[in-house]
Amino acid sequence: MELHLGKDEEPTESLWVRIKGSTGAGDIIAGVCYRPPDQGDRADKALYRQIGAGSCSQALVLMGDFNHPDICWRDNAAEHKQSRKFLECVDDNFLLQVIEEPTRRGAMLDLILTNKEGLVGDVKLKGSLDCSDHEMVEFRILRAARRVCSKLTTLDFSRADFSLFRDLLGKIAWDKALDGRGARDSWLIFKAHLQAQEQCIPAKRKSGKNTKRPPWMNKELLGKVKQKKEAYRGWKQGQVAWEEYRETV
């Protein structure tokens, strides 16, 4: 499969192939990528565009060393700007990251991204190869994605104890707790206190046809994402002025 770079785009260290499906089965797009730790914004943008194009396929598996050690996949958060942009790319394209263990010196640099739950299975770390300091990652691409129970959870507000929730949060002196704190420190403090929701609001499995979407992705946000992508496509093709595109996003 060829994902051509634009005329003014920086080259990226990536390779994409199409695995032909048997009769009645769709093709699988497989990509391998290496993102140098000092890669600039222009090359990142070119890579994100390729990822966006690949994610439009029915089944995508993208693997490689993306060099974003500061990303916390559990909280979907990162310290550095480039890492946050990468997370935004992953979210915008509704990709799932399936590696759960560090692959190099306690950091999760090597990732497997897919746009179809159940397409990747049996993920294992197999130790380093020769002089490499990265863990080898072994996994299977399942030609027919098996049905799996969704790992996504959402809050079950119908069984929530809001009285207890109000009492727990009401005991916190917010003015003192956040006094003199920056945005990041304030968020970490707020996030720690927000764990009270685990005592008061039970979680439940998210089920249905949209299980590959994050629990917070509702119809309104999907419309906004679509509007943003259409504006970007129009700007790249010269059909939308920069001011109009900037106002949209």
Automatic annotation (TrEMBL):
Gene3D superfamilies tied to this protein: Endonuclease/exonuclease/phosphatase
Lineage: superkingdom: Eukaryota
Domain Endonuclease/exonuclease/phosphatase: 32-137
One matching Pfam family: Exo_endo_phos_2
This protein's name: Endonuclease/exonuclease/phosphatase domain-containing protein
Species this protein is from: Grus japonensis
